[in-house]
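[retry 2/3] Ethanolamine transporter: previous attempt timed out, resubmitting with same input.
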Amino acid sequence: MPASPSERPSHSPHSHTGAPSLQRRLGTFHLWGIAVGLVISGEYFGWSYGWATAGTLGFLITTVMVALMYAALIFSYTELTTSIPRAGGPFAYVLAAYGPVPAFIAGFASIVELVFAPPAIALAIGAYLHVQYPSITAQMAATGAYVIFMALNIAGVSIAATFELIVTIAAIVELLIFMAVVAPGFSWGHFIHDGWAGSDTFTPHAIIGIFAAVPFAIWFFLAIEGVAMTAEEARAPQRTIPMAYIAGITTLMLLAFGVMIMAGGVGNWKLLANLNDPLPQAMLSVVGPRSGYVHMLVWLGLFGLVASFHGIIMGYSRQIYAMAREGYLPALLGRVHPRFGTPWAAILVGGSVGLVAIYADQYVTIGGQPLTANIVTMSVFGALTMYVFAMGSLFRLRHTQPHLHRPWRAPGYPIIPGFALVAAVLSFMGMAISNPAAFGLYLLIMGTGVGMHLLARWQKNRATMEKDTAMH
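[retry 2/3] Ethanolamine transporter: success.
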């Protein structure tokens, strides 16, 4: 039987058992900073690869489709978050709707998404610092980033969220400066030239490119749903989370389209299509290499990477903590620091996985791509899996628990949530076809996790039955 939503956690730093628990210290502004910060590195790098497959016009269509999917998703996801404001996020929603095993699948997929995204971002931070300081290797800098930001997350949610807000605002300001500086060199002619997958005319080949570019458009918005993991640390979550979600997705959409269009219209966009630093290169073509703006963009661009890296650590730690607290992962991972009120064990374990990936990157190649490229793709697979389960939960809870208190109701039900569900399924199928090696690895990881969970459930049930038999 599906589980009922649990009682809302107390504002006390200790649970009813006396063990430390999460503390409600986050307001709307902090939550908005987390929502945007989780994602904003995607406005700086990664998305431009979509031009290589779809062209500027094709990728514009892809991004519109993905943006609509995320808008529908967030409007629907907010209903779940405010109805069941638990740190487990999708795990808690699916548990209430479908029961333990589907809940584990959704929660584990969310962990894959949030644990596998940070190593790629950390290596991007490391690569940047290596350019500035050649004596520091990318792996060394990435390791330092993990140590610093895991420590910051353990030190307290207020400190972590305030830092996240500051770096997020700095990253937004930097993107606005970029758009203003390159505006004089913008031309629609540059943007639309060969815009249909390398052609000036729309062809069937452009359709293939539009769908192949879906993962790169998802990178613009990936992980925004992670703010739901802070539901037990938000003040008045039924009010603050909807405001943060709506403001966050609006902010990210404006930045995504602004950055993509402005960068594509300042020169030959094909020169930017396979670069990890499209924004500085686009600015160079307008102001020249000696401009102080370019140096400022290079340095302050680090804020976007740091904001997402730091924010995703907050997200994965709460998902791991919530599943461990409910007995779906080892109890150690559900421990909360007695002084700081943060899930320290979950932070350290998730970070350890990321560190292994960082050092394995130079040795492991899958499908002709380095390990980090594959784990980014697997991160997207995890996100899409979780989106499908979450949207399914919304429909099921509307049917099975019609009287559940819903401070926010998804607008346009059932059409808008249905669109989000169908779009997530189609995106997942398209990615599986386009990335068979990464998809195979994703299935292996998910299968291993679910298999271990089922074995543990079987052993627990068997032990319970044997105990009951012995008592009688």
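[retry 2/3] Ethanolamine transporter: The longest strand covers residues 365-366.
[retry 2/3] clearing retry counter.
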